[in-house]
Design a protein that fits this description.
single chain; 380 residues; alpha/beta; eight-stranded mixed beta sheet; 26% helix
């Protein structure tokens, strides 16, 4: 057992911070309360003067697949030989030895959704994993957790110049519709005989996981919504760069947005409206919002900084914290285990010496499954 005493708990179950103790057993939070009496067999962590948060979550990244410090052979984020690759699985490419995992833990990021890039209209299956471990099978929280789609410039520029489809937005939408139609027919026919290239859509059509759409421009956002509604499927709007221009329409659709990477450059025309105000405008319109670094487009350890910059551009501190904790967990469909400090949930925590949305604050401890996996170096 691990006993964390005298912390200021930001549970994300309520906006109010509470001074309390927290007891962890077998990787789970088993008790939260004031003046808990420790027993002799407990390891004690004194959190006096520290703030305790649920571990932060990046809801869209390519960590472990597009690796840092390594050359192009370690970029396995896109299968560029075919525009439709639904069967590929992130878990078969994630390298837990990617140095970015250490950076994530040092920033208090304990959960990530990671998967294929955006070269293909249908790119494959994302996984939600924890950021501590050496074997991917032991790090998985949920896999698959989403089916990647991509609209706009990336598929067009990766295939069109080579004389291959798609070279237009119309072709991207057509390829996606054709593939989803085949899958729909397969399941309506009972799924017999079993086809591997169709079975990968089962969780999508059964409503267990969403389509995960790479969309920047407003028209691409509307195309993704249109296709999801045509087939009655779940959807997340990832990047959602022009979302602030159509916030009310997105709210009406009911689909959540994963906003970012707002810390990146405006490197192509479809991100010309990139701005930190997007998340705040969407959240105020009633859209469920998470924030993303899109690592390594911007580095994963800057997720709390991105939340702070969103506050600077109009988001409330409570809203920004939700966007990297409980709301991110809800969008990723792992909120039964992660995203808040609650009895029965996984003991993934981060202890800060101040407000994590402020640049001068530092992580003192990061815990995954109740184990201290990162600790700030002790000062002389």
């Amino acid at each position: 057992m691990l006993f964390i005493k005298n912390g200021l708990l930001y549970t994300m179950e309520t906006e109010e911070a509470i001074p309390a103790d927290l007891l962890i057993d077998k990787g789970k939070i088993c008790r939260i309360g004031k003046n808990i009496e420790p027993s002799g067999d407990m390891e004690i962590l004194d959190a006096s003067g520290l703030r305790v948060y649920p571990g932060f979550i990046d809801a869209h990244s390519h960590i472990g697949i597009l690796e840092e410090k390594k050359a192009s052979p370690c970029d396995e984020s896109n299968e560029g030989t075919n525009p439709i690759t639904p069967c590929i699985r992130a878990i078969d490419a994630i390298n837990p030895m990617d140095s970015a995992f250490h950076n994530a833990l040092a920033a208090g990021i304990t959960g990530v959704m990671t998967g294929p890039g955006s070269s293909n209209p249908i790119g494959g299956q994302f996984a939600f994993i924890k950021t501590h471990g050496r074997r991917i099978d032991d790090m998985i929280v949920r896999a698959p957790c989403a089916m990647k789609l991509a609209f706009g410039e990336n598929p067009m520029t990766n295939y069109g110049p080579n004389g291959n489809i798609p070279s237009t937005r119309m072709a991207i939408a057509s390829l996606i519709r054709e593939e989803l139609s085949l899958a729909q027919q397969y399941f309506q026919g009972g799924g017999e005989p079993m086809a591997f290239n169709m079975e990968c859509y089962r969780d999508v059509f059964e409503g267990k996981i969403p389509l995960k759409a790479h969309v920047h421009r407003a028209d691409d956002i509307f195309t993704a919504i249109r296709i999801a509604e045509e087939f009655g499927l779940g959807l997340t709007l990832d990047h959602c760069t022009e979302g602030h221009l159509i916030a009310e329409a997105i709210a009406e659709s009911g689909y959540p947005a994963i906003v970012g990477p707002s810390l990146a450059s405006r490197s192509k025309s479809e991100v010309s409206h990139l701005d930190f105000k997007t998340a705040a405008i969407l959240q105020k319109a009633g859209v469920l919002v998470a924030l993303t670094t899109d690592h390594p487009v911007s580095r994963i350890q800057y997720l709390p900084l991105c939340a702070g910059l969103a506050v600077k551009e109009g988001m409330s501190e409570w809203g920004a914290l939700r966007a990297i904790t409980i709301d991110a967990a809800r969008i990723c469909r792992v909120d039964d285990r992660l995203g808040s400090l609650k009895e029965g949930k996984d003991a993934d925590l981060v202890l800060y010496d101040g407000n994590p949305l402020e640049i001068a604050s530092s992580v003192k401890y990061t815990l995954v499954n109740g184990e201290i996996v990162w600790q700030a170096p002790k000062t002389p």
